[in-house]
Every structure is written in structure tokens, then in C-alpha cells.
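COMPLEX REQUEST
Ligand: phenylalanine
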Amino acid sequence: MDNKIDQIKKKIKCFHMKTYDDLETFRIKFLGKKRGIITILFKELKKISIHKRKIYGKIINELKKEVQEKILSFQSKNNIQNEKILKYDPTIPGKSIEIGSIHPLSMIKNRMIDIFLRIGFIYVDGPEIEDDWHNFTALNIPISHPSRDMQDTFFLCKNPEILLRTHTSSVQIRYMKRHHPPFRVLSVGKVYRNETISSRSNFIFHQAEGFYIDKKVSFSDLKQTIHYLITSLFGKAKIRFRPSYFPFTEPSAEVDIYCNSEWLEIMGCGMIDPKVLKNVDIDPEIYSGFAFGVGIERLALMIYQMKDIRIYFDNDIRFLRQFKSEF
Ligand code: PHE
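STATUS: Structure written out below.
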């Protein structure tokens, strides 16, 4: 037995490994389940007396350790983590990566853009950080005007000139200032108001702003456009125009949609006030126009039959995954 053990020790030491195949041969030669040299030694232990079994058991366990250590040191030198030896096979297909989905609010934004491109509108973006003039003053909302209270504002720094836009109507000013009519424009983006968070409102939400300026644009053009938008989004739907007030439109209206046995306000609209046109150097004697601002989250509540607006900002993957099939 002693002789045998010495020979095995030598065999372990002298076994040279260069490749992963060598390593596998080494492992099978000594530790293979059926014919491994050390496995057989363990089997032979059962045949000798208890006294000798203890002594040789210890020795054979040490041999096993030597084999295992040799395997480990080869693996760590060659950077293999598993006990099983992996061979590179370029024919095996790569692992597929889970692809995300488009956020439901972005889907509605994309749908709105499609709907308006079809009737000659162009799409523009505007900045979320605005100045007082574009967000308020040029839209006929002077400093002391009570409607500034309607839109509790987040000011940036201590400078009340710079703020997070409270609505997308500021894009009207930016675009009208730089372009000559006629034009039809759509813009979609985030707006911010210091509002109490509830199931129906949030301090951050999205609006789509549309405006159209040309000679002889009338209120009936506005109504037609809103009808077109609502039927494109919902198919048949009951809507109503309610007289309202905005400092930048005259006359002004709010549009409600009938949903789950109640009226839900979804947008403000109206004919652009002549004072606003003058502020951007457009002659109100020649041109007239309409504008509207729609809350995207409100539309989303109806389209996806949700009750709580906050779900769109929770980033709950279980909610977002449900929209995978839509695109
Ligand atoms: N800016 C208004 C709001 O945020 C909506 C609006 C847009 C109203 C355009 C009239 C015309 O409530």
C-alpha cells in the first residue's frame, strides 16, 4: 500500500497540464467516479482492518486534496470559475437581453405627433427652464395678475426671472417670435407646478400644445381640430366645450370628455388674444389663430383606464412591462 501511495503522489506531481482538455483528463484520471485512481483507493479501504483504515484513510484524503489543489491552481491561473471546464463554442447562440418598452406617456406623445403631422402641423420642442417673459408676461399675464396664482411656480435660485415652465404655452411665444405666419405647430413636454400631489394631479406632468395662425382662422377651426384629435385617440367620444378664462386667449374654453359616467377636464383652448400676437410682432388685423393645451396624463388615464396619475412616475417595472406589446 505504501508503495502504491508513493507512486500515486509522483503521478500527481508529474502530470503536466497545458490545456483545458489536459485538466479534464487529470480530473478524470484521479477523481473519476468509476475508475479514478483515488476513487478506487477509497473503495479498497473497505477491505482492510479498521486500525489500518484510519491511517490510510487520512493519507488518501491528503492525496485527494493535492489533486483538488492542483485543479484549483490551474483554474485560477487560467481564470476559470466553475469546476466544470468550459470550452468556447462559437456555434452556441448568444444570451438574449431583455428589451425594455416605451413608456405609456411617450406612446401617447408619439400618437399625438402622428395625428397632427397628418393635418399639416410641424413638431417643435421648447426649454423646460424658462424666463418670466416667455412663461407669463408675453402671454398677457402681468406681474400682479391673479392668474399667476393659478399656476404656483417653482422658481430657480432666488432670481424670480428664471423658473420651471408652468405650461407649454411658452413655446407659442418662442416660435411666434421667430417665424412669420402661417404656421401650425405642436409641442409636447414636461411642465411643473407647485401642486399637492393626488390621484388626479402631480407637481410634474406633460402637456401637448398646439397652435395655428393664418388669415381668417376661426373658433370653428379650433373645434374641428379638437374633434379630430379626440376621435383619432378614442374613436367615438362625448366631449363638451365649456366657456373659461385664460389671459392669452379670447374667447377661451375648456374641453371635457365624458368618461366612466363623469366629465373629466382634459384641455384649455381658445383664440389667441390680439395682445399676445402684438407681443410677438404679428399683426392681429391680418392674422388670427387658435391654441390649445392638453394634459397627457389625463388622456392616459382614459386610454389605459387607470385611476391614479402617480403610477406613470412610479417606475414600477410590473406596470411598465404591460405596455411591451403595444409597439
Ligand atoms: N396653458 C393653459 C394651461 O396650462 C392651457 C391652454 C393652452 C389654454 C392654450 C389656452 C390655450 O392650463
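REMARKS: Residues 23 and 138 are 79 Å apart (CA to CA). Residues 50-77 form the longest helix (28 residues).
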